[in-house]
């Protein structure tokens, strides 16, 4: 027996570097503040509040514009004391209309059906494994956003309403262990404080979220140990205490005294500056060491996604919205409208002067409709005592100015009449409609692209969270439900009967003798699945096409071109159905008629036979030596034409049979008119069958006749050729027999010419 080598034990894992081990311990600490003294906590609390105030001051201009825009969109009214108390206070909804128009187009473009996420593959993929994984990840994330993260769609709707108004919005995305899933929520405008001088969210040294906690929430966090058990304000446990403002600052700070600032999250009371909690904002896998084993970099966690409407005009971080773009125009429009209303009010009510000695016998000097009042003076005295003033009413110039301002506001906001489904009663061609839509969508399209860029960042963030938190059970259960696992063979290989399957060991019993194997469960590892190296995760929706109206108008142009024969009719119709969101387009396509298809094929065969016959005839006309073969080819082509014609009649018979079957089906209701229809169809079918039988007989006779004609033609050609050869032979023998006589005549002629002095003549051969 051969000596066997001892089995090798698996190599022990390499020891973890001390720096990694130390940082791992820090990252798992639920509250680092519990291990710090009061002086350090006071220093940290003061630092957080001070730097928060610096960042807040940098946002002052943007916040004032943002708050003004919200008031304009909400149509808030202020008390007016000029030109008189409670004067006209009308608000024109220019900003509101612009915001609603953007949301009406952006929201359906982002959330369009159940498929939200697409994963594209970059680089080589010879076996299609990357594409298959990309399909699985995209399907899982789409289901996650529409079914599991139930708040995502509603929060997206709200975000796309506030974004065009304020210019910049933020969304927080994180994994909540208590909920055992990913959660997300919008941050109210201005509640995430970031220095306006930074270039991007990733480059910001810190960001601070303003959060509000009620006394009961604070007490729960203190009792659970999540926050330090200290009194942040006096009478914190009183139910009548107001909610308290806290600052949750994401920043870098040296947590272990090694001289390197680690990413962390510090929660501080905004007023008292008391620290409630400090946690690390990284994991051990985020740490990179240099060659000496020292910390080179630590990647901080991602929580926030910034959404931008239009880049700031002064180069700041916070973007511009309609509140700034339309603020002055909207205020001027409101002023003009209120002036016109006040002027109309004055012109309608009137006014003037009344003499001091004029008196009425009781009651007010103001009249109601249909009221008559007694005066202490005569008519002449009344006329002299009352001097009315004439008010001209609204100025026509104000009307013109108002129209110009409203049109300018619509230009800025891209709120065109055609985008709202209005064309002023004008009949517009599809091409003209597309031109107007494209003009009105220019600003919108740019904003949509920024939204989609931010959505890509958010989806990448969710994918990174999924890699760490999605369980194999959840991931595989989802794919088993939406796509059944493939059936495997009895030996674990491919299904039996697969001609491409490799041999799988010893022969197995016949499949008929064995029960079907149970489906093999899918075993996908989410950590490997969500390793998207070489892939790009994007929203499914197209930022270039944001409205169904736009797509329908383009499809209408294609339909017009199809009517002129410029493009395919079927493809143009398909594009139109897709543009108006018609489901199951393939089911709506016309089904091919077998009988009609057979008739078309028979007609095509007849045309081809005719064309071949014409070519054969032309060829026969240019051939002299093979007339018999040309005649034979012509006869064979005529037979093909006869067969094609017979095929057409057979197709007609098939169509008649289908009509008769339909009529028989309709006879189920036993109506006399339908019975007559059946009888008529039967008669037509019988006639067609009779015609076909006659054509069969004619075709047979014609073929026999053509064959005989061909044979007779060949015989005639042979006899003619033989006679011509015999005549040539006899003519040659006659010429040979007469040769001596010709030579004697030539000799006599030469002798006579010689005697007479004439030239000699050569004898003819």
Please characterize this protein's 3D structure.
There is one protein chain. Helix 9 runs antiparallel to helix 11, helix 12 (430-440) runs antiparallel to helix 16 and helix 16 runs antiparallel to helix 17 (569-579). The strands form five sheets. A five-stranded antiparallel sheet has the order 4-5-6-7-8. Strands 3-2-11 form a three-stranded antiparallel sheet. A two-stranded antiparallel ribbon has the order 1-14. The chain is an alpha+beta fold and 765 residues long. It has helices at 18-27, 38-58, 60-74, 94-110, 129-148, 152-166, 215-224, 322-325, 327-349, 379-385, 396-413, 430-440, 442-469, 472-482, 526-529, 548-563, 569-579, 585-588, 594-621, 627-666, 672-737, 739-756; strands spanning 117-121, 168-176, 181-187, 192-193, 207-213, 244-253, 262-269, 275-280, 287-289, 295-298, 304-308, 351-354, 386-389, 535-539.
Essential attributes:
5-stranded antiparallel sheet; alpha+beta; 765 residues; 22 helices; extended; disordered N terminus; 3-stranded antiparallel sheet
Structural class: alpha+beta
Overall, the morphology is extended
Report low-confidence residues grouped into runs of 5 or more.
Answer: 1-5, 416-425, 484-508, 758-765
> How are strands sequenced across the largest beta sheet?
4-5-6-7-8
Number of strands: 14
Strand content: 5-15%
Instruction: Using the CA coordinates, give the radius of gyration.
Output: 48 Å
Number of contiguous helices: 22
Helix content: 40-55%
Q: Mind summarizing the main beta sheet?
A: 5 strands, antiparallel
Give the integer mean of the pLDDT values: 77
Distance between the termini: 112 Å
């Amino acid at each position: 027996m051969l000596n066997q080598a001892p089995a090798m034990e698996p190599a022990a894992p390499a020891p973890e570097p001390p720096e990694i081990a130390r940082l791992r311990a820090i990252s798992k600490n639920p509250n680092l503040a519990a291990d710090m003294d009061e002086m350090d906590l006071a220093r940290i609390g003061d630092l957080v509040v001070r730097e928060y105030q610096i960042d807040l001051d940098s946002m002052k201009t943007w916040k004032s514009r943002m708050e003004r825009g919200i008031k304009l969109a909400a149509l808030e009214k202020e008390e007016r004391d000029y030109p008189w108390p409670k004067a006209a206070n009308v608000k024109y909804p220019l900003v509101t209309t612009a915001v609603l128009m953007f949301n009406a187009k952006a929201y359906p473009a982002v959330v369009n059906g159940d498929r939200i996420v697409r994963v594209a593959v970059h680089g080589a993929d010879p076996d299609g494994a990357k594409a298959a994984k990309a399909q699985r990840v995209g399907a899982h994330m789409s289901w996650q956003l529409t079914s599991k993260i139930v708040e995502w769609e509603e929060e997206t709707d709200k975000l796309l309403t506030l974004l065009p108004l304020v210019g910049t919005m933020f969304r927080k995305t994180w994994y909540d262990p208590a909920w055992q899933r990913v959660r997300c929520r919008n941050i109210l405008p201005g509640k995430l404080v970031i220095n306006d001088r930074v270039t991007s969210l990733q480059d910001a040294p810190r960001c601070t979220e303003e959060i509000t906690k009620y006394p009961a929430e604070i007490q729960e966090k203190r009792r659970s140990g999540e926050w330090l058990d200290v009194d942040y304000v006096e009478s914190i446990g009183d139910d009548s205490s107001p909610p308290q403002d806290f600052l949750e600052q994401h920043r870098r700070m040296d947590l272990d005294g090694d001289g390197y600032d680690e990413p962390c999250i510090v929660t501080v009371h905004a007023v008292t500056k008391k620290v409630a909690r400090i946690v690390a904002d990284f994991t051990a896998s985020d740490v990179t060491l240099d060659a000496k084993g020292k910390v080179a970099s630590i990647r901080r966690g991602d929580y926030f996604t910034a959404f931008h409407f239009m880049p700031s005009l002064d180069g700041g971080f916070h973007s511009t919205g309609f509140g700034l773009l339309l603020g002055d125009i909207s205020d001027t429009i409101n002023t003009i409208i209120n002036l016109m209303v006040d002027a109309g009010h004055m012109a309608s009510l009137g006014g003037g002067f009344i003499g001091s000695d004029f008196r009425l016998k009781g009651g007010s000097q103001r009249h109601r409709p249909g009221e008559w009042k007694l005066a202490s003076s005569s008519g002449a005295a009344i006329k002299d005592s009352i001097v009315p003033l004439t008010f001209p009413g609204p100025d026509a110039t104000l009307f013109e100015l108002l129209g110009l301002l409203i049109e300018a506001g619509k230009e800025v906001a891209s709120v065109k009449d055609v985008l709202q489904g209005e064309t002023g009663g004008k009949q517009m061609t599809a091409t003209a409609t597309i031109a107007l839509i494209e003009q009105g969508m220019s600003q919108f399209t740019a904003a949509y692209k920024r939204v989609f860029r931010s959505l890509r960042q958010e989806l990448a963030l969710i994918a990174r969270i999924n890699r760490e938190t999605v369980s194999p059970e959840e991931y595989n259960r989802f794919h088993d439900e939406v796509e059944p696992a493939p059936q495997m063979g009895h030996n674990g290989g491919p299904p039996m009967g697969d001609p491409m399957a490799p041999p799988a060991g010893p022969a197995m019993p016949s499949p008929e003798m064995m029960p079907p194997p149970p489906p093999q469960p899918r075993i996908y590892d989410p950590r490997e699945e969500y390793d998207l190296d070489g892939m790009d995760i994007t929203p499914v929706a197209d930022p270039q096409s944001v409205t169904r109206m736009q797509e329908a108008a383009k499809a209408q142009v294609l339909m017009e071109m199809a009517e002129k024969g410029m493009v395919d009719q079927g493809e143009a119709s398909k594009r139109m159905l897709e543009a108006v969101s018609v489901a199951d387009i393939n089911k709506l396509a016309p089904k091919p008629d077998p009988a009609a298809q057979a008739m078309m094929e028979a007609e095509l065969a007849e045309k081809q036979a005719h064309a071949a016959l014409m070519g054969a005839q032309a060829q026969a006309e240019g051939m002299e030596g093979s007339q018999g073969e040309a005649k034979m080819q012509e006869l064979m082509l005529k037979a093909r034409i006869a067969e094609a014609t017979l095929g057409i009649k057979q197709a007609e018979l098939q169509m008649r049979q289908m009509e008769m079957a339909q009529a028989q089906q309709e006879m189920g209701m036993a109506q006399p008119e339908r019975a007559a229809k059946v009888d008529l169809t039967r008669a037509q079918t019988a006639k067609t069958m009779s015609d076909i039988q006659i054509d069969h007989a004619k075709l047979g006779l014609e073929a026999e006749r053509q064959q005989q004609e061909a044979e007779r033609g060949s015989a005639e050609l042979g006899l003619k050729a033989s006679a011509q050869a015999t005549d040539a032979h006899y003519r040659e023998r006659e010429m040979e027999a007469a040769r001596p006589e010709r030579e004697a005549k030539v000799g006599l002629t030469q002798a006579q010419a010689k005697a007479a002095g004439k030239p000699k003549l050569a004898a003819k051969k």
